[in-house]
Amino acid sequence: MINSEIRPRLLWLWIVAGLVATGLAWAGYTHHAWEDYYITFRASKNLATGQGLTFTPGERVHSFTSPLGVLLPALASVLTGNHSDDAALWVFRCMSLAAYAGAGFLLWRLCRALHGSRWAAWLLLVLYALDTKIVDFSTNGMETGILMLFLAWTLSALLLAPPRQAWQLGLAWAGLMWTRPDSCVYIAVLSLGALLFGSSGAAAGARINMLRTLLTAGVIAAVLYLPWLVWAWSYYGTPVPHTITAKALFHPPVTLGNLPDIIWAFPAMLTAHVDMLATTFMPPYSSITGWPVAMLQSTFWVAALVTLVWALPGVRRETRLASAAFCAGQFYLTVFVGFPVPWYVPTNTVFALLVIAGVTAQLDQATRPDPTLTPPFRALRVGGWILSGLLVAGSLTITVLAAHQLRRQQALIERGERQAIGLWLRDQAATPRDTVLLEPLGYIGFYSNLKMLDFPGLSSPEVIAARRRAHVKAYPDCWAELIVDLRPDWLVLRPYEAAVIRRLNPAIFRQDYDLAKVFDVRPQVQALPFIMGRGYLLNDACFEVYHRRARHE
After folding, report:
1. What phi, psi does 436 have (nearest 5°)?
2. Reading across the β-sheet that carries 490-493, which strands appear in turn?
3. CA-wise closest residue to 408 among 417, 397, 398
4. Cis amide linkage into residue 488, ω under 30° from 0
5. How many angstroms separate the CA atoms of 452 and 439, rounded?
6. How far, in Å, CA of 124 to CA of 190, rounded?
């Protein structure tokens, strides 16, 4: 028999191995590499080959958001001798998968320690493993797996009060900041939640001790993150990523004057845009790409209930803290981001899963089998098992359908079209300094290796300056002005983008640009016998490439 000391270690290994196997199965089946990974990896590879940490050699532009998200792929490229981009992606996948699996184990252990419920802990672990966004963005080249590890560490250090709590929190927070700088939002939210819900109302001394711990942890995190800020400021001239500057132009500023009105309108924002909450459990862009309304509505209402749990006094404090963090995270995504950007959502998904697990644990404890248990409580327990089963079955269904969708997306759109456009442009360009105006920067920018004038300007200060000069600000209506202003050598346009430009300024295509090639895989997408989210593929299934006429060179 296995003794009591070995059994926990074996369980740890089984959990980690199971999560790694889940991630490998997902990556092996879908082969999915996210568009934005190649935006970052172009800078990573430039660093690995000695050309500097920037998108275009010779131009110091902070074209990425995550420090670790760009440095680890650079390391992966170095480890492969800079000879194979696909091998470098797999090295980075393995790094991310190790972090993703470690995070899953930490969350499982956290739930067991907080609630003592096996039912709740295993439900949390299974839902974590089956969440499409978490597993996909932990394997498709984004930094999500690493983010999950530091988030799980933060939650464990905050809620379990381990030895040297301030140091553990400080290290975890520094890891969050090195992974995604906007993690400061969640650090602040969790810290405030710990002060509000972390101890009983009468324990003022406990709150003072917690505040002291949080302040110490903040100093540790700041010291550990400071080297990156100093280096980025000296190298790029600003510590603010260029990606944030570009995206900020989409939204009016939030000020102290308009903040109360925004907070008051926040519930209406959530109910008016189902996708903001539904994406918590659904695949990327599912609300606009043909997924069933019933799925969207079901996940919306589950997430809506999660946002309200913090206000229920009978719920455990740790669960209310997770609910408050989820609600605050939704406010951040809705007001400051303005769209459920899918790789921003997994942090909120973890908060939601902790709420579900916490409520499940209380139900488990209140209705455990007892000879004196009355029939209503027995029915409540059975109902809890049924709801847990429905959550797992629903998550599994969504994951299987999303895997099929992303497998087709990768084969037809990413590799079959966008990569092909990049390689074609590289062969057709007169010089490596040819300029290309387009929106999908990743694959096309990486494989063409040309000077990109992307919208909204993630890699190009010229586009941001032109957007500020333009009279029309909305996408894609502003593109006619951008083209006249920037005079790019090439245009890569979706048909609807070209139609808007043609309507607003027909002279652009009549006098300045010729259609050079059309890349169209719409027939292949339409021929697929079954696929969920077909609209996701169709949005990028056709691109028209235009070249500026020689007489205007």
Report:
1. -130, 125
2. 451-454, 435-438, 490-493, 542-548, 513-520
3. 417
4. no
5. 10
6. 19
Contact status, residue 43 vs residue 70, Cβ threshold 8 Å: yes
Q: Which residues pair with 517 in a beta bridge?
A: 545
Q: Does 7 have pLDDT greater than 70?
A: no
DSSP state, 141? S
Cβ-based neighbour number of residue 478 at 10 Å: 21
Judged on CB neighbours under 10 Å (0-12, 13-18, 19+), 365 is: middle
Distance CA 498, CA 480 (A): 9
* CA 43/CA 446 separation, integer angstroms: 9
C-beta separation of 518 from 545 below 8 A? yes
| DSSP tag of 283 | P
Tell me the two tokens of residue 355. Answer: 């709420």
Q: Please check the confidence at residue 148 and state whether its pLDDT lies above 80.
A: yes
The pair of three-digit structure tokens given for residue 83, joined into one six-digit string: 């000879």
251: left (phi over 0), alpha (psi -120 to 50) or beta: beta
Spatial contact of 106 and 148, defined as CB atoms under 8 Å apart: no
User: Whole-angstrom Cα distance, residue 436 to residue 429?
Assistant: 10
| Helix, strand, coil percent values for the chain (each to nearest 5) | 70, 5, 25
Which is it for strands 490-493 and 435-438: parallel, antiparallel or unpaired? parallel
Helix (H, G, I), strand (E, B) or coil at 430: coil
Q: How far apart are CA 451 and CA 445, in angstroms?
A: 8
- Rounded Cα distance between 470 and 485, Å, is 9
The answer on pLDDT for 371 being more than 60 is no
ω before 73 within 30° of 0 (cis)? no
Q: Which helix (H) or strand (E) covers residue 519, if one does?
A: strand 513-520
Query: Which tens digits make up the pLDDT trace of 289-322?
Result: 788 889 999 999 999 999 999 999 889 999 999 9
pLDDT digits (tens, 9 = 90+) for 204-240: 677 888 899 999 999 999 999 999 999 999 999 998 8
Answer yes or no: pTM beyond 0.90. Answer: yes
Residue given tokens 């695949």 in the structure block: 283
pLDDT score recorded for residue 552: 44
Amino acid at 311: A
Q: Of 96, 74, 71, which Cα lies nearest the Cα of 85?
A: 74
